[in-house]
Design brief:
220 residues; alpha/beta; TIM Barrel; three-stranded parallel beta sheet; 10 helices; 9 strands; 51% helix; globular
């Protein structure tokens, strides 16, 4: 799947679950619950020593169990790690910030890269490099009004607020102009993971997807 199709899948889904867990079995259990709820795009974050190694094993398993799952790797800070992520099967790349080095690398690899941006200067750099979807991070530091103001200046950018977005406040983000939201611990909570309450994760995720559709319909 090329980067244009992946971008379309991300926008269509409306919410991107993101998480890291060091245990491969637990990771697959989380992915199973998300998949059963209707999720087809997930970001696995590079936030532990085992992340890259786990990703390779997880990706091989998803080929068998979830052949249509698009699995990206996040929290990538420089090209060397991004290259390993691609070698291990990442379908797309996500970073918490913006660097020209990662931009050039992803372009050379023809890979979708979603950079973290929080200033108009970074938005301009993204547009100059042909990037249309940016991760607004940390979203909690600016609030939904930040998107609404910047959409007027940067109408060609699509925003994915991440960091502080929850099922309770996501409607305000969509109404401000977000194209998709990233959601970590507010969806895949520590209590759910520790209790291995996968049925709750599935039902919460299914309800979340329905809520996204309802919000979008009301905006349209």
């Amino acid at each position: 799947m090329n980067k244009e199709k992946i971008t379309k899948a991300i926008i269509q889904q409306g919410v991107i679950p993101l998480f890291y867990h060091p245990d491969e079995t637990t990771t697959m259990d989380i992915l199973q619950a998300l998949y059963d709820a209707g999720i087809r795009v997930v970001e696995y974050t590079n936030r532990g020593k085992q992340a890259l190694r786990n990703f390779r094993s997880i990706k091989k398993e998803t080929y068998k169990r979830f052949p249509d799952l698009v699995l990206g790797m996040g929290t990538l800070l420089e090209p060397k790690t991004a290259e390993k992520a691609i070698q291990n099967g990442a379908d797309f790349l996500v970073s918490p910030g913006y660097t020209r080095e990662l931009s050039r690398f992803s372009n050379n690899e023809n890979m979708l890269w979603i950079p973290g941006c929080i200033t108009p200067t970074e938005f301009i750099l993204a547009l100059d490099d042909g990037i249309s979807l940016v991760k607004l991070f940390p979203a909690s530091s600016v609030g939904p009004g930040f998107i609404q103001s910047n959409k007027e200046v940067f109408p060609d950018l699509q925003f994915m607020p991440t960091g502080g977005v929850s099922p309770e406040n996501m409607e305000s983000w969509f109404r401000a102009g977000a194209s998709v939201v990233g959601m970590g611990g507010s969806l895949i909570s520590p209590s759910i993971v520790e209790g291995k309450d996968w049925s709750t994760l599935k039902s919460n995720t299914s309800a979340l997807l329905s809520r996204v559709s309802s919000i979008r319909a009301s905006i349209a």
